[in-house]
């Protein structure tokens, strides 16, 4: 289970940075993203949720990490990807920036969580 958590952590980092870069490119070019980007973004968010769920399963088996900051980074990454669903404005261009920015923040937090795990 710990190996799955580690591999999924790498997937989370890659997916979040991909969705942040791709969304930022769309925002800079002032273009509307298509369905493929929406699926990549949703996939990255689903991977973060799965990563937190895997971490909770590891905790339930009494497998703990030495650095307690690992848990904080994981929870903050989850909150970062969920926050645009609550706070992003309805204007499509600004909403895209919220999702891309949240992906970037969650990606940075995920990198930090991976290094403390």
Describe the structure.
By secondary structure, the chain is mainly alpha-helical. The protein has one domain. Helix content is 83%, strand content 0%. The protein has four helices and no strands. Helix 2 packs antiparallel against helix 3. The longest helix is centred in the first third of the chain and has 27 residues. The chain is elongated.
Number of helices: 4
Largest β sheet strand count, sense and barrel closure: none
Share in β-strands: under 5%
Nearest-integer average pLDDT: 94
The SSE string, one letter per element, is: HHHH
Percent of residues in helices comes to: over 70%
What's the overall geometry? Answer: elongated
Cα radius of gyration in angstroms: 15 Å
Number of domains: 1
Structural class by helix and strand composition: mainly alpha
Separation of the first and last Cα atoms? 14 Å
The count of DSSP E runs of length 2 or more, i.e. the number of strands, is 0
Oligomer: single chain
Low-confidence segments, given as residue ranges, are: none
Quick gist of this model?
The protein has 117 residues and is an all-alpha fold.
């Amino acid at each position: 289970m710990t190996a799955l958590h580690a591999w999924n952590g790498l997937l989370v980092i890659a997916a979040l940075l991909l969705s942040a870069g791709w969304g930022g490119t769309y925002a800079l070019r002032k273009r509307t993203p298509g369905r493929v980007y929406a699926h990549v973004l949703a996939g990255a968010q689903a991977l973060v949720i799965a990563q937190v769920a895997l971490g909770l399963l590891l905790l339930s088996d009494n497998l703990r990490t030495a650095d307690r900051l690992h848990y904080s980074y994981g929870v903050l990454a989850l909150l970062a990807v969920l926050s645009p669903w609550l706070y992003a404005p309805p204007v499509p261009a600004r909403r895209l920036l919220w999702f891309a920015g949240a992906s970037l923040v969650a990606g940075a937090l995920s990198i930090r969580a991976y290094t403390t795990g």
